[in-house]
Amino acid sequence: MARLSLQGIRKSFARTEILKGITLDVEDGEFISLVGASGCGKSTLLRIIAGLEHPDEGSVSIDGKPVDEASPKARNVAMVFQDYALYPHMTVAQNMAMPLIMGRLPMRARLPGMRLLTPGFAPLRREIATQVETVARQLRIDHLLERKPAQLSGGQRQRVALGRALVRNPHLFLMDEPLSNLDAKLRVQVRQEIVELHQNTGLTFVYVTHDQVEAMTMSNRVALLQEGRLLQVGTPDDLYSDPDSLSVARFIGSPEINVLPAQARAGGFEVGDQFIPVPHQLELGSDLFLAVRPEGVMVAGAGPRDGRQMVTLAVTRTGMEDLGGEIILHTAVKGLPGIDLRARLQKEAGGVDLDLRNLPLDLNLSFSPRSCRLFAASGARIRAGAERAASLPTSLESVG
After folding, report:
1. Residue 318 has what pLDDT?
2. From the centroid of its chain, how far is CA 161?
3. 206 φ, ψ (degrees, to nearest 5)
4. How far apart are CA 243 and CA 241, in angstroms?
5. Nearest 5°: phi and psi at 177?
6. 123-143 pLDDT, tens per residue?
7. Per-residue exposure over 327-365, b if at least 16 CB sit within 10 Å of its own CB, e if not
8. What is the C-alpha separation between 58 and 310, in angstroms, rounded?
């Protein structure tokens, strides 16, 4: 295992700044995902950790030791790429053994014709074969050792690529979009296998993906990058339930979080024609954003209220996605031009008898202030002070 520390990493290509001062600590044995849209700099950051790129500024440390001048080999870091990078003329066993052969044999002895003439090669070959078989069993590909890549499925090739990296017993395991070439069903399967691999090995994993589902379901923590900056680092639930900014809130979650314009008033704020009292010290008349996730929105009167204050908005239905057990309802908010409100509705939830497929064109949607988050016009999160929130009714204390 290894602890990784990145301090003030900056990187530019030509005149384009890709990374803008990334500072991040990864603990021993942690699984952390770097997630963000294409071009945000996550793969460049991974290559800097591996030693394949060098930062313009900043430093990389592994177990407290700076490795900025160390070669990729000296860092003992294994990297798995999205295209597998397997040798097509070699068997699975040969592909997996290659890092050990390259690392343990002198240059001349790496040539196939010279290996048998190298003193001590026979016992070394048996040792390498044993290591390959051990890792292959762990990944459940020991029955494929004599096959070549062309004879394997996409998922099997990915496991071979994982095995080739794992056989080296690396300090750090780096993965760059390893599931992007797999179909949806196979991605779910290999995703679970990678999680099990992490649990079984206890190695430190740094995983790059643009897929938030991968990041949220696999990681101990998630680091969200946007345009070369680190927006937030935390557990999947931190980013989902407690985003630091509107950018984080919008990136995490599917469908995307609803964002409604609001205005600050004395003692609270208005959204639509409704007033919401909150403890925040807001600048009167300032523009705000109220965000609520689609799963927190319901058809008015169709869900349990328990005496809670609800925000209710008149909407017009504009579309509907039937996903089997649930429906994604798309609506336009009346009185707020250009503002959409999405609801993720369970067909059978809480004993409510509601025919979701035959909803009227005009209806009311409601949500509890408890499920909302409040943001300034700049996108910065507005949070309630703990001492003020403690005195609020429970239906309001979670706003912000």
Report:
1. 95
2. 21
3. -120, 120
4. 6
5. 50, 50
6. 777 888 999 999 999 888 999
7. bbbbbebeebeebbbbbbbeeeeeebebebeebeeebbb
8. 49
pLDDT of 391 above 50: no
List 16's β-bridge partners, or say none.
Answer: 13
Q: What does the alpha-carbon distance between residue 64 and residue 139 come to, in Å, rounded to a whole number?
A: 31
Domains of the chain: 4-241 (3.40.50.300), 256-389 (2.40.50.140)
Residues 221 and 136: their CA atoms lie apart, in Å, by 28
pLDDT of residue 119: 60
Tell me if 354 sits within 8 A of 288, measured CB to CB. no
Report the alpha-carbon distance of residue 19 to residue 157 in Å, rounded: 32
CB 136 within 8 Å of CB 12: no
CA distances from 126 to 107, 111, 142 (A): 20, 18, 16
Packing angle of the helix pair 121-138, 92-104 (nearest 10 deg)? 130
Q: How many residues does the chain have?
A: 400
Residue type, 282: L
pLDDT surpassing 90 at residue 173? yes
- How confident is the prediction for the chain on average, in pLDDT? 86
Helix axes 154-166, 121-138, angle to 10 degrees: 130
β 311-322/362-367 pair status: antiparallel
Query: And the tokens for 235?
Result: 């557990």
Bond preceding residue 236 cis, omega within 30 of 0: no
> pLDDT higher for 92 or 357?
92
**Is residue 395 pLDDT above 80, yes or no?**
no
- Distance, in Å, from the CA atom of 8 to the CA atom of 197, rounded to the nearest integer, reads 31
DSSP line for 316-335: EEEEEEE-SSEEEEEEEETT
5-41 pLDDT, tens digit each = 999 999 999 989 999 999 999 999 999 999 999 899 9
Average pLDDT in the 215-235 region? 96
Tokens found for residue 29: 């044995």
Report, as an integer, the average pLDDT of 68-96: 90
CB 369 within 8 A of CB 393: no
What is the sign of the dihedral through the CA atoms of 60, 64, 70 and 74? negative
Beta strand pairing call for 268-271 and 326-333: unpaired
